[in-house]
Amino acid sequence: MALRIPICTFDAKTGILCAKCESKLKSGQISQADVEVSKALVKIAEKVNEANRIRLLRSVEVGGNYVIEFEPMDVTVIRSNPEITAKLEQLLKGKVWIVGATNSDRRFLEDLFYPTRILTVNTVWLPDGSKLTKAIVTGRRSERALSEVEKLKRVVKEMKGIEMTVESERDAMLHR
Length: 176
Prior knowledge:
Blueprint: H1 9-14, H2 19-27, H3 32-47, E1 56-62, E2 65-70, H4 72-80, H5 82-92, E3 96-100, H6 105-113, E4 118-125, E5 131-137, H7 143-160, E6 164-168, H8 169-174
Parallel strand pairs: 2-3, 5-6
Antiparallel strand pairs: 1-2, 4-5
């Protein structure tokens, strides 16, 4: 089984899109992030054998960071070899989150926050008709994690249209 990406492998290797792939980009079938991630994955697949078995479905770039969606079974392959994610971050020059394709918002959030476990996800309807999703995660919030949470909230808003707040298990217990 070979690496499957949204653009031609030849285009990913050369960095120049053929007319067919250029048309897909212009029509919005694929994004510029799909092109960048495809180029990076082809480079990685030359050195890391496991990368040859994965299928890239789509990529979204949010503020210089990337959310990369794969087939759900491929997420396990990627997580079992941290070199793949490390090389993606190095080549893309940004933070990379690996998610599996799913229709479940909770599953999407669990993949996005991995390795942090999400304990609960609640949706609150606000008086103005909008909704807010609250996720309670294990552990404590450190200052370093706080900047990461802000990035994740932006990603969730952009990809799923979900406005969210995140609390640690400890903070949630204090609010009771």
